[in-house]
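pasting for ref
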Amino acid sequence: MRNKWRIPHPATMFFLLMVGVILLSWIFDIYGLSVKHPHTGAEIHVQSLLSPEGIRWFLRHVITNFTGFSPLGMVIVAMFGIGVAEHSGFINACIRKGQRHKNKYTTVATVIFLGLLSNLAGDAGYVILLPIAATLFHSVGLNPIAGIITAYVSVSCGYSVNLSITTLDLLLSRTTQEAVAFAGISSTKVGPLSNYYFMAVSTFLILVIIYTLTIKKLIPSFGEYDGDVQFESYKPLSKRERRAITLSWIIGSIFVLVTLWATFSSSGFLRGITGGLISSPFMSGVLFLLSLCAGLMGMIYGFSSGRYRTDTDVIKGFTQPMKLLGTYMVIVFFASQMFAALEYSKLDTCIAIWGANLITSIELSNLGALLLFIFFTAFINLIIGSAISKWAFMAFIFVPMFANMGIAPEYTQCAFRIGDSSTNGISPFLFYLPLVLTFMQRYESKSTFGTLIKYTWRYSVVILFFWTLLFIIWYLSGLPLGL
């Protein structure tokens, strides 16, 4: 019997979401939904997209909504470098070189671990790791779509965890400290390492959860891949290929060392004006630097191995991903309009602040309030994808409220990070969702958001449950969350 509940094509899905946003903005505008911003005190009301002003706004910005969609330029730039690395045979050679020493278990663990650590380079994990994970999984006899899903949940659901300090730690702690000052809690200082111990331990917890679910649930649900994409053979490397790959890695290592020196040395010119990494040239251009490194290594390999002979061959490598990006462009056009409409209407912000105000009116114990906050954040994350955007107003509601209950701000921030990351894998409003669906459609043209959520919901639910359980144990034991 045919399934009547077939999920539409990703482009159609984003178009329908946009229509939903437009209709809801119209309804809430009629009923005058408005809230006060907890920090500035400014009145925020829902703006109808069906009003004359809303229609004029849409017509003025329909093109810039698309061209200004932040992941679009990042994806195109990153795919240039990946395209050369793949077209030259460099990625294939790297996989063949390590294939003798790897099986499916170590491959799965490696992809997950890299995904959890990828937030060191911002959102690069979504762009770079997902296509590589597909090839890695296929190289050990696993379905490439399973590799994409595994990398996706690792990057998204584990976005807050790491073994090192990340930009997210810096940005969240800065907002938390502003909320602390706003509430007049002068004795408290929240720094970037305030959640470090908990997040470092959480890295291994989430690694175990994703690994277990991938091995026991995800991989068995996929059969052997028999799609249209033809992978290169994984025959042993020739002597010339071994020399080429060694030279490529030497050049790549030199590039990385020079970049690190230019960033972290005393005279580093890639640091910010104040000497920090926030808003520095390094952080702003880290995805370009990674793409440049991949492209450079691919080009060196191509010429050294004999696959490339002229610059025309290199240009073919640049253009190789364009077929894939054609589908991505169509999806992004509708997705960008939906995200822009949501931002213009202020529907997401009003609903989030209204819900937060409702939560604060409920009397609970300290631990009960934190748990309710985790689940509320997990729900709001389905509507507002950006952690920084959510925390920019939620911090000024919950940090003062919980401080008055005797809860330290670092616990409030930690609870927020648990809820914010856990449901990333099932959020239809994640900025990089169009790219994820495009990668999936490369290997299976019938892949939709329904296909993705069919497998990712289990990760989000299990991670949210056990991560919250770890938080409860940590809270009751009185262990410090960080430095």
